[in-house]
Amino acid sequence: MAVGPGNIVALAPIAGVRIGVANAGIKQVTRPDVVLFEISASASVAGVFTKNAFCAAPVHVAKEHLQGFNEVNAARYLLVNTGNANAGTGEQGMLDAKLCCQALADKLGSSAQCVLPFSTGVIGELLPTAKITSVLDDVIRSLQMDNWRAAAAGILTTDTRIKGHSVSFELAGKSVLITGISKGSGMIRPNMATMLGFVATDADISPSVLQKLLTDATDQSFNRITVDGDTSTNDACILIASGASGVSITENTEAYVVFKQQLNALMLEIALQIVRDGEGATKLVKIVCEHAATVAEALEVAYTVAHSPLVKTALFASDANWGRILAAVGRSGLENLDVDRLKIYLDDICIVENGGRATSYTEEAGAKVMAQDEILIRIVLNRGEVSEAVWTTDLSHDYISINADYRS
Amino acid sequence: MAVGPGNIVALAPIAGVRIGVANAGIKQVTRPDVVLFEISASASVAGVFTKNAFCAAPVHVAKEHLQGFNEVNAARYLLVNTGNANAGTGEQGMLDAKLCCQALADKLGSSAQCVLPFSTGVIGELLPTAKITSVLDDVIRSLQMDNWRAAAAGILTTDTRIKGHSVSFELAGKSVLITGISKGSGMIRPNMATMLGFVATDADISPSVLQKLLTDATDQSFNRITVDGDTSTNDACILIASGASGVSITENTEAYVVFKQQLNALMLEIALQIVRDGEGATKLVKIVCEHAATVAEALEVAYTVAHSPLVKTALFASDANWGRILAAVGRSGLENLDVDRLKIYLDDICIVENGGRATSYTEEAGAKVMAQDEILIRIVLNRGEVSEAVWTTDLSHDYISINADYRS
Question: Could you point out which of A394, A406, B24, B27 has its C-alpha 20 to 30 Å from the C-alpha of B348?
Answer without folding.
Answer: A406
